[in-house]
Amino acid sequence: MTGVDMFERVIRGAQLIDGTGMEPIHADLAVSAGRIAAIGKNLGPGHQEIAADGLVLAPGIIDSHTHYDAQLTWDSSADPSPALGVSSVLIGNCGFTIAPCRVRDRRRTMANLVKVEGMSMAAMEAGVRWNFETFPEYLDMLEARGLGLNVGAFCGHSSVRTWVMGDQAHERAATASEISAMAAVVREAMAAGAVGFATSTSASHNGEGGYPMPSRLAGQEELLALAKAMSEGGHGVFMLTKGAETSIGFLENLAALSGRPVMIAALLHNSTRPDAVFEDLEAISAAVGRGHELYGQVSCCPLSMDFSLRSPYPFEGISAWQPALRAEANQLPVILGDPQFRGAVKADLEHPQAVRLFNGQWRHLKVVETVLERHRHYEGRNVEELAAAANEHPLDWMLNLGLEENLGTRFVAELLNSDETAVARLLNHPQSAIALSDAGAHLTFFCDAGFGLQLLGHWARDRAVLSLATAVRRLSGQVADIYRIPQRGYLQVGYWADLLLFDPHTVGRSDNQRVFDLPGGEPRLTHQARGVVGVWVNGKQVADGNGCLPGTGAPGRLLRAFGA
């Protein structure tokens, strides 16, 4: 065979798991011109030869629930996702996007993301490149800058609402003419290449000043109109983060009206109402049985969050917490010390809600780091035990400690998905879609960007809750099918060479670590891959066992074309 006839790269002797759910085959895989050129035994030579005996070669992970919208304007690699096996991401989930955005709304958009997605204002002010206003201009900007992985973008409801309604977007329902104007923006976004339309009705989603994110002010008429506008081009997925007042029945009706798939987040197991998430999934299954395409988005990770009382995200879904949420910084200590405020929060917590992050699970809330030396012995202990020792209500104990330390005490809350038996049921439910990494958001609270490695290692290998082939399908082929992403998600000749090579005996993720590498030196939580040998995006290697590779350029593509 001449040099001209050689493949660019051949990965030899791997166990190939192709994304269909079929069991592995022992074979070689060749790559040329960014695509899978051949699969089989004893393939011809490649300019690069990679020995993969004992390793698994799978499609790259498609992370369908990220919030890299802002980060991609300064970091085209979407760090840390590529090093964690991810070759494609979908951004704009929950409707929290940065486009469309008028110049006048830039500060408000960033301030909302600070509150609702735990982002750093200093990092965004230093990093976001605002050389766009409309959604098509945003996509064009991403494409012109270049991307380290493949990116598909949702058109986001809160941004669309703000574009049309300005400051009124988070205060009132829209008029008929405003809904019509929003629908036009959605049509424009879909024509430009949006993967779909994303929104949220969750009570925990609050923006600057504690006001609801704009999408939460939308009535059912508005949601239905925008779903219809999304669907008119014959493609698109309607993504919604569900609040307590949004029923599966309404979402089934929305799917029927639009004729498009509906992805419902975030279905997490809550030990205070253990059956609620399964009731939602069974309602979704019933809708599917009636011919409507609905999915429940679940997580394979326990939801833990680091926080301080300056930004206590786990508590922000509690109705009685709203006065603190909207308080100016100098008034916050006064409110947190107010007995009436405390009494109202305690009363609210007596009525658990399945869609609320915190429902009084004080034994799952620990002190991570204290400010004052005399309080160091509290670190690592849970609030329930500490409060009992002090003969105080846990809320009073936590708030008193925080006030004594000028609200600088750091806590961690183990909130949802802590019951592994229940999570195993979620992962195996036929209508569940495994995602919810939230990569790019909540950077000081938690990091689940390595969720795919957690599924492959902890759940498939260690717990044997699902087979490795099934786990790979749930992270690749199934995702490509749901979102109609063509020629990705499978190891198939002619498909793009988005690849993950890993050691099945060691694959997983490390514990979180705090680094200070955001714009302006701002901090974030991240973690490292275990057992990952290589990650390729469109045939170009972007990561190896030591993490992201420098100097890889921009092999990613903006995903603009989706199937029906």
Low-confidence stretches: none
Number of domains: 2
Oligomer: single chain
CATH class of the largest domain: Alpha Beta
- The CATH superfamily of the largest domain bears the name Metal-dependent hydrolases
Largest sheet, strands/sense/barrel: 9 strands, mixed
CATH fold-level topology of the largest domain:
TIM Barrel
Overall outline: globular
- Output the structural class: alpha/beta
Number of E-type strands:
24
Features:
564 residues, alpha/beta, TIM Barrel, 8-stranded parallel β-sheet, 17 helices
Explain how this protein is built.
With 564 residues, the protein is α/β, with parallel strands linked by helices. It folds into two domains: 61-302 and 417-485, TIM Barrel, CATH 3.20.20.140; 306-414, no CATH class. It is 29% helix and 21% strand. The strands form five sheets. Strands 1, 2, 3, 4, 5, 17, 22, 23 and 24 form a nine-stranded mixed β-sheet that branches. An eight-stranded parallel β-sheet has the order 6-7-8-9-10-11-12-16, sandwiched between helices. A hairpin with a 2-residue loop joins strand 2 and strand 3. Helix 6 (220-231) packs parallel to helix 7. The chain is globular. The mean pLDDT is 94.
What's the quick description here?
This protein has 564 residues and is α/β, with parallel strands linked by helices.
Please render the helix and strand layout as text.
Blueprint lengths: L6 E10 L8 E8 L2 E6 L5 E6 L4 E4 L1 E3 L22 E6 L14 H11 L4 H7 L7 H11 L4 E7 H9 L10 H17 L3 E5 L19 H12 L5 E5 L6 H11 L3 E4 L10 H14 L4 E5 L4 E5 L14 H4 L6 H5 L2 H11 L15 E5 L13 H7 L4 H11 L5 E7 L3 H9 L3 E3 L16 H12 L5 H8 L1 H7 L15 E4 L5 E2 L3 E3 L8 E3 L2 E2 L1 E6 L2 E5 L2 E2 L16
Parallel strand pairs: 1-4, 1-5, 6-7, 7-8, 8-9, 9-10, 10-11, 11-12, 12-16
Antiparallel strand pairs: 1-2, 2-3, 5-17, 13-15, 14-15, 17-22, 18-21, 19-20, 22-23, 23-24
